[in-house]
Structure formats: C-alpha cells, structure tokens
Amino acid sequence: MNPAEALDVRTLCLYTRGMPLLNVRLDAEDQHLADQLREEGIPISRIVREAIRAEHARRLGHLARKQKPSQLIAALLAELPDPPGTRSHGVDTTDRHAVQRHIAARLRSGAP
C-alpha cells in the first residue's frame, strides 16, 4: 500500500520526515485569535515555534544562566516601567546599596 493512501493526505512530505506533530487544545477565545491570524496570512505553526524557542531560551537557555542579575533587573524595569503618576520612592531602587541604606535609615527613625 502506498504510504499516502494509508495517511489519506495530499501532503505526504509533511508527515514522513520524522517531524512530530503537536496538537494543542484551544479555548474559544484562543481559537478566534488564531482564526484572525490565519485570515491575515500569518502561519500559526511559525508562531508556535517562535513561542517554544523563546520560552526555552528564557527558562533553560544559556543566556538565562549567564545573564547577570543586574541585567535581568534592567530588562524587567525596561519592560515594566512604573505607571505615570507613581510617587517617587525617594531612593534609586536599582541600586541595592542605596536601598539598603534607605531601609536602615527608616528603621532607625521609626518611620512607617
């Protein structure tokens, strides 16, 4: 029997390369978003691959292990800045020594 007949597909080359197929269940909202992306011509498979690679790099990649804590904090602060109108802390929160001195001074003064 021809392998194409066994799989009942016209794109046999996609299923014979030893590339695993990943099925993902989507709720109604995610399905709607995926449909909109597809309508715009954006391949969902590319988005899934990019997401997997990004998450792997973030959680397990060499960059995550080699990055200095100061670099991680700088990236977080750049990604999540304080909202406009937030009051100042009175100290540079990215300088751990300044924060340490600030906390010690507040504890000595009994300030809340």
Summarize the structure.
With 112 residues, the protein is mostly helical.
Write a structural description.
With 112 residues, the chain is mostly helical. The chain has two domains: 23-66; 67-80 and 90-112, no CATH class. Helices cover 60% and strands 0% of the residues. It has seven helices and no strands. The protein has helices spanning 3-7, 12-15, 28-39, 44-59, 62-66, 69-79, 96-109. The chain is elongated and about 75 Å long. The N and C termini lie far apart (80 Å). 0% of the residues are buried. The model has no long low-confidence stretch (mean pLDDT 81).
Average pLDDT rating: 81
Q: From the helix content, strand content and strand pairing, which structural class follows? A: mainly alpha
Order of helices and strands: HHHHHHH
Low-confidence stretches: none
- Strand percentage lies at under 5%
Give the terminus-to-terminus CA distance.
80 Å
The oligomeric status of these chains comes to single chain
Helicity level, as a percent range? 55-70%
> Any idea what the shape is?
elongated
C-alpha-based Rg, rounded: 25 Å
Biggest pleated sheet? none
Number of domains: 2
